[in-house]
Every structure is written in C-alpha cells, then in structure tokens.
Amino acid sequence: MRESHMSHSTLAKRQPERDKLIPNPTAPLREQLREVMRFRHYSQRTETTYWQWIERFLRFHKRAGVAGVAAWRHPREMGGAEVTAFLSHLAAELVVSASTQNQALNALVFLYGEVLHQPLGELDAFARARRPTRLPEVLTREETRRVLAAVDAEYRLALSLLYGTGLRVMELLRLRVKDLDLDRRQTTVRGGKGDKDRVTMVPESLLAELTEHMAALREQHKRDLASGYAGVWLPEGLARKYPSAPRDWAWQWVFPARPLALREGQMWRHHLLPEYLQRATRAAVVKAGLNKRATPHTMRHSFATHLLEGGTDIRTVQDLLGHKDVATTQIYTHVMQKPGLGVRSPLDG
Predict the structure, then answer these.
(1) How far is CA 33 from CA 20, 21, 29, 116, 345, in A?
(2) Active-site residue set
(3) Which domains does the chain have, with CATH numbers?
(4) Are 323 and 300 in contact (CB under 8 A)?
C-alpha cells in the first residue's frame, strides 16, 4: 500500500467558506454533530454515516486503552496521530476500499473542524487503501428489457423510470410530486449529490403509466388527509417556514411506502425504501436468466452507456447524470459496444 497524507486545509478547499456554528458544548457529542449537520443542510443519511465512523474511531481507541486500562477517550483528547492510526488500521488490517477509507476521513475531518473546532491540520502519512480500476456493470438493451419485463409489477414503474432518467436510487425515491412535470417531460432532481439541482427527461413511453400512477396517488392522498394524516418528511427549515407543506399534494412522494408510519403519535408516510427496490431487482435478474450482478444502480450505468452508444454527446450525458467532472462520465466509453472511436477488432475484418 502506498503512503500518503492529506491536510484539513486541502479538504476544506472542496467547499466554500461558511460561517461557523458553535454547537452547545454541554450537549452529548451525538447531539452536537446533529446540530452542526442540520445547520450545514447535510442529509440524514450522511449524518448517520458520519456518526457511525466517529463511533468506530472512538471504539478503536477505547480498545487501545490508556496506560493499559480500556477506557473511552473524548475526541478532544486526541488528534491527528490517533486519526492517522485509525485510517491505517482500516487499510492495513481491515483492507477496506479507498472510498470507505475516504468516507471515514471525511467524517473525522468534519468532527474536528466543524464540531469541535480543533482542525486536524497536516496528517502524518498513513496507509492508503488501494483504489482499483473497476468498470461498471452494464446491461445491454435487450437485457434491460428482460429485467424490466421480469420485475414485480409493484416496482416496474420505479425501475423503468430509474433506467429512463439515469437517476441515482435515492434521487428517484425522494422525488416529490412537484418534481415531476409530465407536460414539459421534465424530471427535476432537488439537492442531488453535492447538494445540486439538475433536470433530466421523462421518457415518452412512460407518460401514460405515470399519469395513471399520479392519479392513483392523488386519490390515496385524499384518503390519507381524511384519516388525519400528518404528512411527509420535510427538511426542518422548510417544515418550520411552511408548516402545512407536509400535507400539501405538491410535496408528496412519487413513490411512497405502502403503509403509513407511526411517529410521535401521528401517522406519516415515508418514501419507498431502497431495500425493497434492490430485492425486486435481484429477483428480476434471476428470473430473466442473466448471469450479471445487476442492481438498481446498474440501470443508471446502462442509461449512460446506451445514450453514448446512440451518439449522444458526452457533455450532455454528464449533465443528465449530474457528474461534476466529465472524466467520471468517460468511464462508460470503456463498456460501450462500440468503445472509444468505434474501433473494430481485426478479426472482424
């Protein structure tokens, strides 16, 4: 494994400067993290992931102990040396992937820089997890049709829209009614990866089914309201500013979970859980007789590859996918049926 080091200042350049928030110093560390992450508008998913890494970091140094006695150490009592040791442990002993190690690093940099206000500064060299080159799993057009035909009817529309728009799984599941404009054939992604908005298409072939689906959702929403429905989840700032929005039709999920969920004595509706779509996709791949490890995210890879194979400009595909760098989009040129410049094997004449 190669050695490397990274400074907090280097990571900080990835984000614009923002006002600092000093969390309540008397609150538990978990609450302090939540307060800052809500202030920074991080997603609940990221908050959960970061806290899991912080817990692992603290457990790692509890096992190491102080003077031979296993005990918890507050992160304020530690710093760059302990972070370096933990990151090296992940790579050398647990053999995690490079992306996993970077996720742990980002969580700890955030903890020290934004929550504790004790920036780590320049980290000592630590063992870096290797980042092997992996080509994405892609289905052919025929294989895609077979999977969509084989998937359970309850999830067919969601999986079809995933392929037809190139959305990430959570972008699809977090679509709200207001984000789907069937008249203009546009799907708007709000707060996608990197907290960026973008617009992609609505497939013409799904218009009739989507229209019927939205009409059924509207009727379900009316029944929910009549039964004392509390609404859907909204970011805290929006919920405070627009207290009636959780019950408004425009803010409802395009793909809601079937049962209502009880929370704090009220009935709420969550969006469809990703595990359900993942299981349905795996079952469809088996039923279709494919020998590929396709997942819902494979539909996004297939969307990009099929557009490029059809002659769509790579910059357009980059915009549709929401990639920051076109180099990320270029990976799909390696799995096209006519890769690169359309070079043919000499065996094919």
Answers:
(1) 13, 11, 6, 9, 56
(2) 168, 193, 297, 300, 323, 332
(3) 3-127 (1.10.150.130), 141-334 (1.10.443.10)
(4) no
User: Going residue by residue through the chain (349 aa), what tens digit of pLDDT does each one get?
Assistant: 444 444 444 444 444 444 678 888 889 999 999 999 888 878 788 899 999 999 999 999 886 555 566 678 899 999 999 999 999 999 888 888 888 999 999 999 999 999 999 988 888 777 676 666 678 899 999 999 999 999 999 999 999 999 999 999 999 999 999 999 999 999 999 887 777 899 999 999 999 999 999 999 999 999 999 988 999 988 767 778 888 899 999 999 999 998 888 877 888 999 999 999 999 999 999 999 999 999 999 999 999 999 999 999 999 999 999 998 898 898 888 777 765 545 555 555 5
Instruction: Provide the Cα torsion 144, 148, 150, 151; round to 10°.
Output: 130
- Check residue 66 and report its DSSP letter: B
Helix (H) or strand (E) holding 103: helix 98-110
Whole-structure pTM value: 0.71
- CA dihedral over 85, 88, 93, 96, signed as positive or negative: positive
